[in-house]
Design a protein that fits this description.
By secondary structure, this protein is α/β, with parallel strands linked by helices. It contains 7 helices and 15 strands. The chain starts with 5 loop residues before the first strand and ends with a strand. The chain binds zinc ion.
Length: 278
Amino acid sequence: MEMGARTFGPGELPRGPHGWIEAGVLLGDGVRLVFTNRLGGVSEPPFHAMNLGMKVGDDPSKVTENRERLARYLGRDSGDFAFLEQVHGKRVVELGPGRSLDPVAWKRLRASGYAYHRADGAACPRPGPVLCVLTADCLPLALYHPRGAGALLHAGWRGTIYNIAGHGVRSLCKMVKAEPGEVSAVIGPGIGPCCYRVDRERARLFREVFGNSQGVVIEGRDGTFLDLRTANLVNLQKAGVRPERIAVLDVCTCCREEYFSHRREGRTGRQGAFLLLY
Ligand SMILES: [Zn+2]
């Protein structure tokens, strides 16, 4: 399905505690990419246990403790995390250099749990703060350019239709004044085509944007399914990223119970993707 991209199972990558995935090796040197799951935190059901989302109805003190645990694992201060108030849009925040957040973003993070309001992606040059995207079925997309910049994006079905992948590639390339041919990308854990059944209207929208022939909309025996990984692969390639530089994690958050899944559970927590540039 992946049109030249490489596909990896979770067993093929280094693992941290609780089965968290260390995927930086797929992007290049001087970069760390971590995907957490729902294990290793203190939240109570239905947010058990490692919920990192501040706006899903969980006890904020539990979320804060979970974020502190993650910060310790990553070896960074919890005040350096560029959490986004994700809204299924296409805005990519472009951050300046420096490991710490700017004072305004830091204040917002302390007050609301989010350093940047209404954004679904962030890009920064190295060394940067910790870029963060939270998900419960949507796809996290990580981008890296060897001239020293990275981006992390949140792509659910709306973000995929809005082509946030393309916006992220353009932000990143502008930042390092380079072409997209050297960009590496990782498509992280999210709902797979095995579980993402959609109604006729959603399927029609995706056919309109992606055409019939690319394996994005799949007619199954018991309904129509979307493959968001393939759709974002198409978006990345249209933006100029070479297929051999794209890695796809074959990890379905709806199939695997160690992940939060909105489709499987409804009210639930959020796992995270974290990108660190050294
Ligand atoms: Zn699945």
